[in-house]
Specification:
25% helix, 255 residues, 6-stranded mixed sheet, single chain
Length: 255
Amino acid sequence: MKSIFLKRDTGPTTPASATRADEPPIVIEGLNHWFGSGEARKQVLYDLNLTIERGKLVILMGASGSGKTTLLTLAGCLRTVQEGSVHLLGHELNGADEDLLVTCRRQMGFIFQAHNLHESLTAMQNVRMGLDVHGAQVTTDWQAAASHLLTLLGLGDRLDYLPGNLSGGQKQRVAVARALVGNPYIVFADEPTAALDKESGYQVVHLLKQLGTERNTTTFMVTHDNRILEMADRIITMEEGRIVKDEIQDGWQGS
């Protein structure tokens, strides 16, 4: 899988280089979170403690409103940590300044249920947009990396298509390639297979699983898709802002 991705930044200022190889990339302790203010203030997460190991595919499940996406966005630097600790790639996010948050985001990929593609850009160009956050790290290799990923995801014959000429599922696969082309250390995914048929969803999650095995990439995913649960290394279930079940899965033997 070496030829798919651009070279990771391993310089001394990156969060990943500040962690030991055996150090968990995500450690959460005593995490509480509220929405609103004053009399409307409502607690949505309650004293969460969670450690996610490197290279694992971890699925977060639960009913709507259980706090899954809130937890995912706090761990992914998309919300401000209010109370408790979120240790990401060797850095504490509670109280982190914007420079540190940006540096952390450069080590991550994000896949959301809404594909959010630029309608005036081709599939290849949309994937290229996933590298903008990396600034000077972008190299002339991006075209080969983008093409290879899109081909793996079944879009090799649609590299130059605009989003308007792609189906919903094809657009989502472009969004997946955009999240992965920068070779992230952690992938945060919120319902990434919701718009995909069974085969396409399997392709996406199988690729994420391969990344964990071959490149030690960690995936933290929110999903309601029972079709992909067998591929998870671990399934965490939430109810009303609390973790109520945490199950380690037997090794998946798929190919």
